[in-house]
Specification:
This protein has two domains: 66 residues, Alpha-Beta Plaits; 96 residues, Alpha-L RNA-binding motif (Alpha-Beta Plaits, 2-Layer Sandwich). The protein is α+β, with helices and mostly antiparallel strands.
Length: 178
């Protein structure tokens, strides 16, 4: 029987089990041998990471051809207009590829949000806002590159959901097997 683990990856943790430089890895949180990440999440991003011991399930979760939607909450510098968001909804040219159309909307700061360590820099004269962005692909630093391209750099990025699985009731560093 396949194992599937939902993990709320904290900021600064690498999506691997070993690091020669001694940085925090999955091994610092998940004591289960033989499971591997189904996809990646950059060390400066937080949120849902799925791990499994089943190669087929890992491929179904991670490979873009399966179009498993990923929901991100992005805190951005500035307040994007509807026209800015429409660019994301149509697909945006990032130079090396054109993104697929995304679902993008402004949201209130999520009520279930935890404090990040270290905290996001605060600048009194520059407002921030939150976006929910849903994509079916997931190329390297894609959401960050998308928001930067429309002029609103991402300050904090949290993956809230992958397909039907969410971070609900998972604090940073916590995991559960389903």
């Amino acid at each position: 029987m396949s194992r599937l683990i939902l993990f709320n990856k904290p900021y600064g943790v690498l999506t691997q089990f070993k690091d020669a430089s001694g940085r925090p890895t999955l091994a610092d949180f998940i004591p289960i041998p033989g499971v591997y990440a189904a996809g990646r999440l950059d060390s400066d991003s937080e949120g849902l990471l799925l791990l499994t011991d089943d190669g087929r399930l890992q491929a179904r979760i991670a490979h873009p051809r399966h179009k498993l939607l990923k929901t991100y909450w992005a805190q951005v510098e500035g307040i994007p207009s509807e026209a800015d968001l429409e660019s994301l909804r149509k697909g945006i040219n990032l130079g090396d590829f054109i993104t697929q159309p995304a679902h993008a909307e402004r949201i209130d700061e999520p009520s279930s949000l935890w404090e990040r360590h270290p905290p996001i820099r605060y600048r009194a004269i520059i407002p921030t806002s939150w976006l929910q962005i849903v994509i079916g692909e997931g190329k390297n630093r894609q959401v960050r590159r998308m928001t930067a391209k429309i002029g609103f750099p991402t300050l904090r990025l949290i993956r809230w959901a992958v397909g039907e699985w969410t971070l609900e009731k998972l604090s940073p560093g916590d995991w559960r097997e389903i």
